[in-house]
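[User]
Um, tokens okay?
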Amino acid sequence: MGYKKSNLILIVIHSRFEFTNANCTTVDRKFGECDYIFLKSANLVLMKRFNGYKPFLYNITINACKFFANTKSSPVVKFFYESVMTFSNMNHSCPYNSHSRFEFTNADCTTLDRKFGECDYIYLKSVNRTYKYLSAKFKLYQLPRFNGYKPFLYNITINACKFFANTKSNPVVKFFYESVMTFSNMNHSCPYNHDIIVDKLPVDFINYRLTKVLPFPEGDYLCEAHWFRSGSRFAVVRIYGTLS
């Protein structure tokens, strides 16, 4: 009895997903806008074969906040969500307010009593996209003999020397004071017998204070400080910023 020879053909199919394009279209700029989206090619360090890629395109509508609170509520969406969450900050429940950011917009200092002192400089500088800072210097011509610095912050009047001696005495002023003291020589108790300097106060530090330490609502802000000595106003400092 003879056997008929036959050829066995083995077909191996390799399927691999590749990015081909990506885009983001802003529809409501009042709510937010696309900052960037791009693809970048890098060397592959690990490849693995899979048998049976079966991608499907779905038309699913979900409430995103409810899904973030319980990702098991939609297995299909959960699959795609887990594909990006490790490399994204979209990995927590609502609210999503991480895109609020404080930016310096302007700063000025007006000298009102040149016998007492004057503004030497105050300016903003942008080193690059992520590093911006404020620097300022007020030159004192008459050294203070008595306690008398009285800054006005959010319509608050304090005795500056008493505050410097006990910064816990006013929590509101303490918040703003701690926002600049690390970058200033205005970090000790009275007397002040030297020029007052703020050097390279980075906007990222202010942004952290206004969004993480004590979150402020979005909007345009002006911090205006009127400085007095013996009942006479000698300087006005204005810091402008926006939180968006």
